[in-house]
C-alpha cells in the first residue's frame, strides 16, 4: 500500500469515513474491488497547479486566423484550444 508498510502503514494516516472506518479498509473489503491493487502515492503539488496566467504571444496574422478558425470549429476559446493542443488533447494530437 504505502512504501512497503502495507495496509497498516497506509491506514495510519488515512481519512476515516462516516462510520469511523478507514477508507483504505473500506475499499479493500468492498467485494466490487476484489482482486484490485490499491496504492498510495505522493504527487508534487505543482503538477496539479491550474492557476491561470495571462501571457502575451506574437503570431503572424494568418496564423492567428487559422488558430481562431480551428478553435471556433472545435467549439473552444482560443486559450482553451491552445491549452488542449499543449496537453496533447487537441485536434493536432489526433492527426
In terms of topology, how is this protein built?
Elements: H1 6-12, H2 23-29, H3 61-74, H4 78-86
Helix pairs in contact: 3-4
Provide the descriptors you would attach to this structure in a database record.
single chain; 95 residues; mainly alpha; 2 domains; elongated
Task: Explain how this protein is built.
- The protein has two domains: 1-42, no CATH class; 45-94.
- The chain has four helices and no strands.
- It has helices spanning 6-12, 23-29, 61-74, 78-86.
- Helix 3 (61-74) crosses helix 4 (78-86).
- Residues 1-5 have low confidence and may be disordered.
Briefly say what this structure is:
The chain is an all-alpha fold. Helices cover 39% and strands 0% of the residues.
Amino acid at each position: 500500500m504505502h512504501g512497503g508498510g502495507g495496509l497498516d502503514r497506509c491506514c495510519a494516516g488515512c481519512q476515516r469515513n462516516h462510520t469511523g472506518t478507514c477508507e483504505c479498509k473500506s475499499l479493500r473489503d468492498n467485494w466490487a474491488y476484489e482482486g484490485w491493487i490499491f496504492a498510495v502515492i505522493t504527487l508534487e503539488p505543482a503538477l496539479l497547479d491550474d492557476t491561470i496566467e495571462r501571457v502575451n504571444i506574437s503570431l503572424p496574422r494568418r496564423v492567428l486566423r487559422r488558430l481562431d478558425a480551428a478553435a471556433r470549429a472545435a467549439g473552444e476559446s482560443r486559450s482553451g484550444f491552445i491549452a488542449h493542443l499543449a496537453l496533447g488533447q487537441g485536434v493536432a494530437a489526433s492527426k
